[in-house]
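Good day; I would like, with your permission, to put a structural problem before you. What I wish to show you is a protein chain and, alongside it, a tokenised description of its three-dimensional fold. Here, with my thanks, is the record as I have it:
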Amino acid sequence: MSLMPEKTPTPQSSPWGRRWLRLFYTLPALFVLGLCVRMAYTRATRQGPPVRAISAAPFATVEIHGLTARLFTQGNALRAAGSDLFIEFRDAQGKPADVGDVSFAMVLKMPGMVMHSIGKVMRAATPGQYRTSLDPGMAGEWTATLGFSGPPGQAEATLSLKVM
């Protein structure tokens, strides 16, 4: 009997096992690095949303609470596929009038069905000017309701708009 411990064989790792292990740890790191590069590239080359040219002439005008509201869009009518709407309020002297919070909603009534298109109206940089985006979804003769609530009071007007 010998006092020396027996030598236990140590497992030998194959070269293929080391390659797979290296690949297992390298691929996720490369994936994360690629995502970071893509995010940096996207942020550096980001472009703003497309700007649509608004017509110089209003396509609709309505009197509301002693003020004139003029509506502008691309061309001479709203589009069923979506339109940007620019609303301008002017007083009797033709000066821009700040009216506070503005609401704009459209309704298309048909036999057995009613469609609505409501735009969130936001103030523009100039007092008395407001913007919204609408997506009516269907051409036709829509009834629009334009309202405001602010310093000059509260008022609402209804007008008929053609959507192409």
